[in-house]
Amino acid sequence: MKKIGLLVNPIAGMGGRVGLKGTDGADILEKAISLGAVQEAPEKAKKALAKVVELKDKFKIYTASGLMGEDECKELGLNYEVVYNSAEKSSVTDSRELLKYFLENGIDLIFFVGGDGTARDVYSVIEDKIAVIGVPAGVKIHSPVYGNTPEQAGSLLFEVINGVELPVIEKDVVDIDEDAFRDDRVEVRLYGYLKVPFDQRYLQNKKSQTPQSDSDAQVSIACDIIDDMKDDIFYIIGSGTTPMYIMKELDLPYTVLGVDIIKNKKLVKKDCSENDILEVIGDERAILIVTPMGGQGYVFGRGNQQLSANVLRKIDKKDIIIIATNGKLESITSGHLVAYTMDEEVDKKLKGYYRVKIGYEREKMMLVDNE
Predict the structure, then answer these.
(1) CA 21 – CA 2 distance, rounded (Å)
(2) How would DSSP label each residue in 116-175?
(3) Contacts for 125-130: CB closer than 8 Å, 24+ residues apart
């Protein structure tokens, strides 16, 4: 019987919808809660673990109390043991103490739920001594130690428990400076490597930046969008360097890593949260402009959680414009884009083929799928 260590970081990703771009640090967590942030990581943990329920006689989970693992296992009827009692408000100390237990007690594989900060915590204790699989639940996920979605992380765990022989390879643990991120700067640092059972069908790529040589294409895309803009309609400009060029060409203030709203080519609101977007657009028509995440292909659900299922219900599918340079699209090795909002109805609505703008009056057909 395989021994699986389960670590759920319950606060991972809480800052996304409220526009805080992460939850590293007690002060940011308190601010996120004050703005109405809710925990999503426990639900993502359950989505992942549901994939292995049918194998429950083949493994036992070792985990911490409450939302750090116990509650999710109990709800799914899994075979588990609580080996660490976490504080009511869990912290990095709880995570590291649980990880020390895994290291000292012969755990076969660690299944952890969180973001890049959680991956850093795992590396700080485990290094390369135990194989891991990450379940994506953070705002920013650059590290390629995670499944593409919680369900795909669960499918990879299914293979491991079922005895499928997979190569175990080292994958980067990278994270960004959240203070710099909130200040619209991306500062990425490599912290080390974790060992991951490798099956490319389920694991995400490392996030890649848009090549510098693509800047001319970004300008031409921006000009195409601006020339087609209609009067008296809200335009929601998503995060990323390619949408940024729209704001630059309009000579408007912008947030590279946030969501801005314009109307009649004037700024309405900058760096919006989910609630800001809903309040501004109300029941009026809004056109949404987004770019996929380089390397990973996410258009929704990763790095732009402000564009939540609640927001996307308000927007007609035909009013979603995807923009990307050829260089960025070529970095997405899956060959398709991903929309994952955790709302099945909205995800189903978003599926399908889109004409992705890749230059002035140039388009490329791309599939948006949910995994």
Answers:
(1) 36
(2) HHHHHHHHHHHTTSSEEEEEE-SS----TTBBSSHHHHHHHHHHHHTT----EEEEEEEE
(3) 125/96, 125/99, 125/100, 126/99, 126/102, 126/194, 127/192, 127/194, 128/170, 128/193, 128/194, 128/195, 129/103, 130/5, 130/102, 130/103, 130/195
**Average pLDDT, integer, range 278-306:** 91
Mean pLDDT of 182-211: 76
DSSP state, residue 7: E
Question: Max CA-CA distance within the chain?
Answer: 64
Instruction: Copy the structure tokens of residue 254.
Output: 């912008």
- Show the DSSP H helices in 215-325 as ranges: 215-227, 241-249, 274-281, 309-313
User: Under a CB-based contact definition with an 8 Å cutoff, are residues 261 and 275 in contact?
Assistant: no
Each domain of the chain, given as residue ranges in start order, spans 2-197, 214-369
- Show Cβ contacts of residue 169 under 8 Å, excluding neighbours closer than 6 positions: 195, 196, 198
Tens-place pLDDT, residues 313-346: 999 999 999 999 988 888 888 889 999 998 999 9
DSSP 3-state assignment of 103? helix
Mean pLDDT of 191-219: 79
The span from the CA of 341 to the CA of 306, in Å, is 11
pLDDT digits (tens, 9 = 90+) for 138-191: 876 888 899 989 999 999 999 999 999 999 999 999 887 656 555 556 667 889
Local structure of residue 35 (DSSP, 8 states): T
**pLDDT for 357 beyond 80:** yes
> 127-158: string of b/e by CB count within 10 Å (b at 16+)?
eeebbbbbbbbbbbbbbbbbbbbbbbbbbbbb
Q: Are 305 and 115 in contact (CB under 8 A)?
A: no
The CATH number of the structural domain formed by 2-197 is 3.40.50.10330
Structure tokens at 37: 């942030």
Chain segment 56-96, per-residue pLDDT in tens: 999 999 999 999 999 999 999 999 999 999 987 888 899 99
Q: How many CB atoms lie within 10 A of CB 93?
A: 11
Instruction: Determine the 3-state secondary structure of 244 from DSSP.
Output: helix
